[in-house]
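Following up on my earlier thread - several people asked me to post the actual chain instead of describing it. Fair enough. Here it is, all 159 residues.
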Amino acid sequence: MKRIGVTGHRSIPDALLGHVENGLRAVLGGHEGPLEAFSSLAEGADQMFAAIALECGAGLTVVIPSGDYEDGFEGAEALARYRFLKRRATQEIRMDFARSTDEAYYAAGTYIADSCDRLVAVWDGQPARGHGGTGEIVAYARALGKPVTVIWREGVSRD
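Reply from S.P.:
Thanks for posting it. Predicted structure:
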């Protein structure tokens, strides 16, 4: 079974949404055989990746950073998407953190990188804005020798 994990930005510029969706579909849909997808289901890249993985018939493993993770979702729509995707998961892994801290996000991100054969990064190439951010998880995966597929368009910056 092939295992693909995701790390990525929560905020994806509107001009990039179609490009990211197409890139994720290419990675997840262009695969032969059984597939397991790993995601923390954060808003943005993680949720988009998980939804497309499920559409492609993959099993979904969700990696929950902390006990209070749901409290960090902004708005009812993002929380509803999180809960919907979480219910469709075949497996749930919980990090041993009561609160959503940078350390909890780092633990979840490194768990995903450790567990996958390939990491997909919806990433602008910039350094992480905090411990456990996308840039740091990409560097961690690369240090492990994991292949990393970056999906972004040159010249587009994050808010």
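The helical segments are 17-29, 45-55, 76-87, 102-115, 134-143. That should answer part of your original question.
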